[in-house]
Structure formats: C-alpha cells, structure tokens
C-alpha cells in the first residue's frame, strides 16, 4: 500500500537513518522490509534487547524542582478522507484543539466541516487574545471555558452541521482537558498509557456532538473535564476518532515506545501514528471499531475509513529566566 503524501518525508527520513534490523525490532513498517522470520537474526535480537533496556521506567524524583516549568513541543499530521476535521496548536499558551465534523451532516446536504472549523477558529482566536493579555490568565488557559466560548460564538453565527471536539492545555505541571464526543487524547509515560480519554456516545457510532441546533446539540456542560500531573518526558497524543477507531492502545504504546527509543521528533511520531490508522482503516484485520460494532450486533470486520488528525506533544522543561 502506497503511503499518503503527507507522511512520505517522515518515512524517508526514518528509513534513511534506521537499519532494517532496527525497524523490525521496533515493528515499524516502512515500505519493503525483510520477512518477519528475520526476527530470529542476531542483529534484530541485539537491537530488541537494547531497546528494552532503553524503555525501562525512568527513576522518579521524590518531588519536582521548586518552580520547575514545562512546555509542549508539538506537531500534527492530518490525513483527510472527507476533509471535515480541524485542529490547532498554540505553543506559547500550550493549548491543543481537535474537532471532527459529524459525517451524518454530509448525508443531509450540509457542509459537515463547517462547525468543526468554526469551533477551532473561534478557539484559536480566543487563545491568541488571551496570550496577548498582560498578565496572562492565572493557571493558564481553561479548556472548558475555551470550549464554551468557542461553542457560543460558532453557534451564534448559525454555522451549520455538528462536531465533536477536544481541547487540552498545559497549566504549570498539569495537563487539563475538556471534550465532547469521541475526539480524544492519551498521555504516555515511558511509552505506556498513563491516562486515556473515553468516548462519549449517545449510542453506538453516534458521539456526543455540538451544533447550532439547540434541540439536537449536546451541551458543553456535558463535556468530560479533568486534569492530570505531567512531567518532563511525557508524550501527549490528541486525535480525532479516525485514530482511536482504527488503532489499539497496545499499538499506540508500541509506536510511542519505538519513537522515544529512536529519537523521533513530534512530527515523525505524528506521521507514523496517523499512517498506522490510515493503513488499519484499509485492512480486513480487526480494529477497535470492528470489535465494538460486533458487540452491538453489527456484522463488521476491518477498519473504518475516516479523516484522521493526530497531534503529538512532547512535555519538555522550560527554562525560567
């Protein structure tokens, strides 16, 4: 299967600097690789053992340094199927947003991308304005308040269609979130999931959604909200359901672990994660979506073709002047 053009540069970069045996050891498929039987080769075994040592949990400090600050270094990959996702990242404010236009609106003759794009444009505009304020908002940007304001602005304009949405922000040493529907996120520590959002659904394949129609729209007050302490070295993946419907958590962990071991950039990791979803959506092997569908009496195998947005953020230390 030919890779989407959005990720070919990353694939080329990784392929050029990563021996085939190492790619086998971490399970990264880049074009034509030796057969899986090669996993018995000594060079592959050596790489696998080395990676296992690198991925041992880091020693924990009893408490973080006083006044230590963190920042997010992030990059995204968007692989459109219907081109109805929208997203943004604001580095200074440490805020990420992802919205996914509800495909059912397309069947009603509406522009299914309108509300997702309106939400993210309004949210980004608010973040920019808040970041320019002096002093900045105490405690950083509140994802719930930002989602509420973005929704009010988008709904008031009469923007058609509907959308799910997730917003996460870094406030000091805490990651805060608010989401409606099945756009979500996962936080990884040492390559393993520390926290993972759970989708909100009215019924199978019908996520909670925001729209201008007050009768059909869920309310922002129904958003899932929370926060979790993060530390340097953690990885945050924020995505639309095009990722979570097609890629199991165990595979996400494997990709993050491999990316950390191979010193991937956030862009490298976002591209590889999105490409995994793209490929899984086109195969006949089980996916989270097919398993859930059969659990609800649907005869479904394989993946679900959909827009896929992936934003990967590395939690890093921020020098304090």
UniProtKB/TrEMBL annotation:
- SMART domains membership: PP2C_SIG, PP2Cc
**UniProt keyword terms in alphabetical order:** Hydrolase, Magnesium, Manganese, Metal-binding, Protein phosphatase
Q: Where is coiled-coil annotated?
A: none
Any one Gene Ontology molecular-function term assigned to this protein's record: metal ion binding
The answer, when asked if Magnesium is one of the entry's keywords, is yes
Provide the PPM-type phosphatase domain boundaries: 69-315
EC number(s) reported in the record: 3.1.3.16
InterPro entries in the record, alphabetically?
A: PPM-type-like_dom_sf, PPM-type_phosphatase-like_dom, PPTC7
Q: What class of enzyme is it?
A: hydrolase
- A Pfam match: PP2C_2
Which cofactors, if any, are listed as required?
Mg(2+); Mn(2+)
Taxonomic superkingdom: Eukaryota
* Family classification: Belongs to the PP2C family.
Specify the protein name: Protein phosphatase
